[in-house]
């Protein structure tokens, strides 16, 4: 992805252009990935809420699904899951 050269008046607040994590395919270098046990999941959405890269797709009703192409495997979702429905497994 090519980043345009901007003058100081064109820079956004804090001088850092916002680029969504969706612009980067980081899943290739992950060591762990989340595996959700649907029998334990209570659909609370905490994994979706706490994920720093917004990799969970969730419509508010079904089981949240991680986009493994963008998941870095940090494990925050598994740590925050109140029912321990998420297990971080080695890729």
Characterise the protein shown here:
11% of the residues lie in helices and 15% in strands. It is an alpha+beta fold and 91 residues long. The protein has one domain (21-90): Alpha-Beta Plaits, CATH 3.30.70. The strands form two sheets. Strands 1-4 form a two-stranded antiparallel sheet. A two-stranded antiparallel ribbon has the order 2-3. The longest helix is centred in the middle third of the chain and has 5 residues, at 46-50. The two termini are 27 Å apart.
Concise synopsis of the structure shown:
With 91 residues, the protein is an alpha+beta fold. The protein has two helices and four strands. The chain is elongated and about 55 Å long.
Low-confidence stretches: none
- Strand/helix succession: EHEEHE
Q: Multimeric state of these chains?
A: single chain
State the helical fraction.
Answer: 10-25%
Based on secondary structure, the structural category is: alpha+beta
What's the Cα radius of gyration?
16 Å
| Physical arrangement of strands within the biggest beta sheet | 1-4
Gross geometry: elongated
Number of domains: 1
Q: Total strand count, please?
A: 4
Per the CATH scheme, the topology name is Alpha-Beta Plaits
How can the largest sheet be summarized? 2 strands, antiparallel
**In CATH's first tier, which class applies?**
Alpha Beta
Please identify, by name, the CATH architecture.
2-Layer Sandwich
- Indicate the mean pLDDT: 86
How far is the N terminus from the C terminus? Answer: 27 Å
Q: Figure out the total of helices.
A: 2
């Amino acid at each position: 992805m090519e980043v345009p050269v901007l003058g100081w008046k064109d820079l956004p607040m804090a001088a850092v252009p916002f680029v969504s994590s969706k612009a980067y395919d980081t899943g290739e270098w992950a060591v762990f990935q989340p595996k959700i046990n649907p029998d334990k999941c209570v659909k609370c959405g905490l994994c979706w809420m706490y994920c720093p890269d917004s990799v969970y797709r969730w419509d508010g009703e079904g089981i949240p699904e991680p986009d493994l192409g963008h998941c870095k495997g940090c494990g925050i979702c598994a740590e925050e899951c109140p029912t321990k429905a998420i297990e971080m497994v080695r890729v």
